[in-house]
Design brief:
The chain is of the alpha+beta class. Helix content is 20%, strand content 21%.
Length: 319
């Protein structure tokens, strides 16, 4: 007998200051072209090679690139009112908040199958100056200018941008701007539960261990060329793979057998301070695979059980 469990868990996304590139120096009321306010993360690579390479390997870097997102977006656009068409970009390319009038461009970028803009890149995170926790999901506030925000203080002087430390970048409320729930659109069901569950009341959160403590583990390095060596956060956002996933649950098996029957009880205990699985509402799931082997290791029984969030229509039929 053996059991297997497969988890798909995405870490909350957060990118660290500072950022290299051309930034608009004016307020959002007199915005520069989109590519000036939110330059491509390739520009950051010049000074932030380690961070860039970690981000490039992450799911966040592919937020508007993957085929599943492209297909899902097309289905969403075909089935919803035009005024709701920006919803997916609220998290997959959050600068839509500042450039809502560019929605057609965002859509065409995805449909091209080779988008030239980043969905979730360095500026999409590091230009966030505040988060409104009174909205659902929480709403980020961007400050478009020459200042890049992050979790480190005493940044080295540079010609690319100014840097400012904000405690926000070490708090869970930064992550829940996109990992809390779907934004509301026309006809949305009321009072849908959030993806995370009551994370604010968990021991991890109340004991000072925010999302970043697991999904952006620190190591000693420099955050940019010429910066001092100190603890810096990982930007590959581990969660789906490796140690974070391996330590997400414990499994315990008990068996009772008779000549005619076998009874197996599998206990799965989540060790993470949020709902499991997370976070994708459509296809994240826990798979429990139970196989029983008899004489000569011949498989005599197999069963899979799936634990996932399901959605239904107004008639309570699964969609």
């Amino acid at each position: 007998m053996r059991g297997g469990i497969f988890l798909l868990v995405l870490g909350c996304f957060l990118l660290m200051a500072p950022l290299q590139g051309l930034f608009a120096g004016e307020s959002s009321s007199t915005k520069k072209p989109l590519e000036k306010s939110f330059p491509n993360s390739e520009k950051c690579k010049r000074c932030h090679l380690r961070v860039f390479e970690e981000w490039e390997a992450s799911a966040q870097s592919r937020s508007i690139v993957t085929a599943p997102f492209r297909v899902t977006l097309d289905q969403f656009l075909a089935s919803t009112d035009k005024k709701d068409h920006a919803m997916c970009f609220r998290c997959h390319a959050p600068h839509i908040i500042e450039y809502a009038d560019h929605l057609t461009r965002f859509i065409k970028e995805v449909q091209s199958k080779d988008p030239q803009m980043d969905g979730v890149g360095c500026p999409q995170c590091h230009l966030i100056q505040d988060v409104d926790m009174n909205s659902h999901p929480p709403m980020p506030t961007f400050q478009l200018g020459t200042t890049i925000f992050g979790g480190y203080d005493k940044a080295a002087e540079n010609l690319a941008h100014q840097s400012q430390k904000l405690d926000l970048y070490r708090e869970s409320k930064f992550c829940v701007t996109c990992h809390d729930s779907l934004p509301k659109i026309s006809g949305s069901a009321k009072d849908l539960p959030g993806w995370l569950g009551p994370w604010e009341k968990t021991k991890s959160e109340t004991n000072g261990k925010p999302c970043q403590s697991c999904h952006m583990p620190e190591a000693v390095d420099e955050s940019a060329n010429g910066e001092k060596v100190r603890k810096v956060a990982n930007h590959s956002f581990p969660g789906r793979f490796g140690k974070v996933r391996a330590e997400a649950v414990t499994l315990d098996f008990t068996t009772e057998t008779t000549p005619e029957t076998s009874h197996v009880q599998v206990n799965i205990q989540s060790l993470v301070p949020h709902n499991l699985p997370l976070p994708h509402p459509g296809w994240s799931r826990v798979v429990v695979d139970l196989s029983i082997f008899g004489k000569n290791l011949k498989k005599v029984y197999n069963e899979q059980r799936f634990y996932e969030r399901t959605f239904g229509d107004a008639e309570e039929k699964e969609t």
